[in-house]
Design brief:
Elements lengths: L1 E4 L12 E3 L2 H8 L5 E3 L2 H33 L3 E5 L6 E6 L1 H10 L9 E2 L3 E3 L1 E10 L2 E11 L6 H31 L3 H4 L1 H12 L1
Parallel strand pairs: 4-9
Antiparallel strand pairs: 1-2, 1-3, 5-7, 6-8, 8-9
């Protein structure tokens, strides 16, 4: 008898295959366990329609994957990492970092479908994004050393700002000493000179 398999059966066939089996095997095992149904004309027509719709759906999925692959193939990433003096990366660049960089460019790619070989040194590499069993994109990326010395100028600037602030705070001290130099009381000490003038006048 003809049976349409509803799931894979080891040694017999795969899902949606139409197979010939002994009547007893079909009626007593395949059909009762839900592994198959009798391949009637109506069942065959339903299967053909299902396969057709599935083919259209799969073709659409593949087309979408190809369109995305085309966009990804035009992308080039730059990833900074901490690198030792010998050029060896502390840690490694992996699929997670690739996915994060793609996310910044608007591509929501699951890290699980990104394949990249171990990256241990700065340089140019290529990551493979498996979008479909028949479609994959190649994303080139460059690993560069982080610019660690960039933080130094900020540290050097801090002491300079402290010195400027300190000089500004000391400046008022000089201004406070200026009035002391004028010594206003000097005018009062010269006052007796005016009293001596009348005495000379009387003489």
């Amino acid at each position: 008898m003809e049976i349409i398999l509803k799931e894979d059966v080891i040694g017999l066939g795969y899902k949606n295959d139409i197979v010939n089996v002994k009547a007893g095997y079909g009626r007593n095992y395949l059909i009762p366990t839900g592994k198959g149904v009798i391949a009637s004309e109506s069942a065959k027509k339903a299967l053909a329609e299902e396969i057709k719709q599935k083919a259209v759906k799969l073709a659409k999925i593949k087309a979408e994957a190809e369109a995305l692959a085309e966009k990804l193939n035009a992308v080039s990433l730059t990833i900074s990492a901490k690198v030792s003096k010998t050029g060896v990366i502390y840690g490694s660049v992996n699929s997670l970092q690739i996915a994060d960089e793609l996310q910044k460019l608007g591509f929501n790619i699951d890290r699980k479908i990104i394949a990249v070989k171990d990256v241990k040194t700065a340089g140019e590499y290529v990551a493979t994004v498996k979008l479909h069993k028949e479609v994959a994109a190649q994303v080139p990326f460059t690993v560069i050393a982080e610019n660690e010395p960039a933080a130094a100028p900020a540290e050097e600037k801090a002491p300079a700002e402290k010195k400027a602030k300190k000089a500004k705070e000391e400046a008022p001290v000089v201004e406070e000493e200026v009035p002391a130099v004028e010594e206003a009381p000097v005018a009062e000490e010269e006052a007796p000179t005016a009293e001596e003038a009348p005495e000379k006048a009387e003489e």
